[in-house]
Amino acid sequence: MSACGVCLRRTWLVARLGGRIEVERRVRARELGLLLALGDEELMRAVAAESVVVGEYRAFDAAAARAAVERVGLEVVCRHGRTGSDAG
Fold it and tell me: What residues contact 14, with CB distance under 8 A and at least 6 apart?
């Protein structure tokens, strides 16, 4: 497993906000690349994420995410390199 905690949490966040991201893209004609270029906090504000999502984001457990990834046999990658270190 090569993804750090920061990358695992970002992946979780994009998946969790997928519906809202799509609404922003279609209804408000926002460019997907510009939305995804935002930092995590900015993205949550841009799509008006509910407070429950913000709470889930703050409580994100990288170890649990890694275990889930391993259970289903997926491979994850990290934009920070292949060190396997947990940056967050």
Answer: 21, 36, 43
